[in-house]
User: Fold this.
Amino acid sequence: MAGTPPEQLKEADPALRGSIDQTLRDSGADHFVEDDTVFLKFHGIYQQDDRDARRTGKQYQFMVRTRQPGGRVSPEQYLAYADLAQQYANGTLRVTSRQGIQFHGIAKHGLSSTIRGINEALATTLAACGDVARNVMAPPTPPTSVVGEDVQNDADLLSGALLPQASAYHEIWVEGVKLDLGEKERVVDPLYGATYLPRKFKTAFVIPPLNDTDVLTNCLGFIAVAEDGRLSGYNLAVGGGLGRAHGKTETFPRLADVVGYFPRERIVEIAKAVLAIHRDWGDRTNRRHARLKYVLEDRGVDWFRAELEARVGFALAPVRHYELTNQGDPFGWKRQRNGKWMLGLHVEAGRIKGSLFRALREIVLRHRPAVRLTASQNLLLVDVAPGAVRAIDGILGGVGVQADAQGSAVRRASMACPALPTCGLALAESERWLPEALDIVEKTLEDVGLDGDEIVVRITGCPNGCARPYMAEIGLVGRAPGKYQLWFGGNHAGTRLNRVYRETVRTDELADTLRPVFQRYALERAEGERFGDFCSRSIWAGANALQSAAA
Ligand code: SRM
Ligand code: SF4
Assistant:
């Protein structure tokens, strides 16, 4: 058997069972053996430990992630999640940057009840993590047009079509679904094969001009094309991804290539074929080089298009005209097309906790709005009856949240990954540092007379890029405790990567590093020019000129 250890494990046990069941039944064990942690990921579970508590030895705990295509959460699911979070996790719900929900801090003995509870709420954690197609993202706003409705339906369709069968998940976690041993051992997933994908695979839909799912950062992107008010098909985007590692230049963020147009009815064939190209051509010898983006980078767009067309048996049409102009979520109350109301709520770093947790639970319990999770870690309450608007405002007002005044523009546009204390890969704080980092950004903006301006700031605790910092106007990427790499120059349309401005900035140096750049921006910006665009036009143009002069 060749390949990396995860490849060997998948091949040896394609049902993804390992010894999870035995460890679950062993009440003396507080964690799973290393090999099983590979299988657990496919089940939507990460074995973690509280890194704040490491001095006294590892205190194992688990993170569980749900799969919510398009970020849709029914009121019943939301209430079930809130109860599970209080009963088995740390009493918080975390809206992820891919429209899922994460529970943190679950003890081993609470895992089975949590996953069963999620399945009883008609949701799943299967394939929320692992070397498979992850949660399918789609615009979270309620359909404002037939196109919006069709795109949501396609996201649901695809999420189902790309879900692996992985029989062990149901045997272990979902009561009553049991296969006899002989049968289950033979199950090899028809789409994924015995070894699944070389690495994770990410899919997103978008309806231009709003790029609210950061579509070009996905392995597989569908850019909706409408004709006469109806969804006719999609421009296909392939090979996006952001993960990188410090000091390893062979790893890098990459935007997807838009390779052609196809009619809507071919979407499942297209998606499965792209996934199969990753399955068959992704690098299984090096997990750092195993994402689909490297297949595109190494073999080129023409190779990819030819390979895809050979697999689906038809040619892609030329890319249809589209334009992505901006990103972000709607905040405050908005009237829906059907006469009902929608409320966009900013959730700092996606963490629903404390009084906001209690208020949201009460709102959903009493008024039954549907919940939509956004790709910017925020939340929408949708389909609110007109008569419930005042009551919801009252509940939120009781915890200091005003629908029409939810923090500054910089805060509402920010994102941060969880990092410490749960993420085993974190090199620096992220979510916990976000409020202070934004204070620094806002105070420095104020110093140069730019208070009130929106700048998209995204922070991560390491270069993996979970809060998509490489698309931000200001990206802060953890290097070591209290030290960050500083990136400038993403655009609001989500169509341009930013660039490193400083390799290392200490938190106490951030204000002094930002101030001169903000000063230049205040003096030299064109009318209405955003900070990221100014950096791209001015700072980077200067850097390029210097580089070519030196060469
Ligand atoms: Fe991520 C690994 C959290 C979106 C790139 N990510 C992790 C793990 C599971 C750490 C680990 O492997 O032990 C983090 C769990 C931390 C914790 O304590 O909760 C983690 N990633 C997250 C979330 C929760 C961040 C957030 O702020 O919401 C997001 C969950 C999304 C979901 O619901 O599925 C999350 N991760 C992303 C994104 C953004 C996106 O997909 O739009 C990226 C960059 C895009 C991409 O994939 O290229 C991302 N996460 C990574 C990587 C780097 C992958 C690579 O190609 O190198 C890792 C590390 C890995 O896979 O080995 C990683
Ligand atoms: Fe962890 Fe790094 Fe992802 Fe943050 S970016 S959650 S530190 S893996």
Remarks:
- The CA atoms of residues 455 and 531 lie 6 Å apart.
- The mean pLDDT is 94.
- The longest strand covers residues 230-238.
- The radius of gyration is 23 Å.
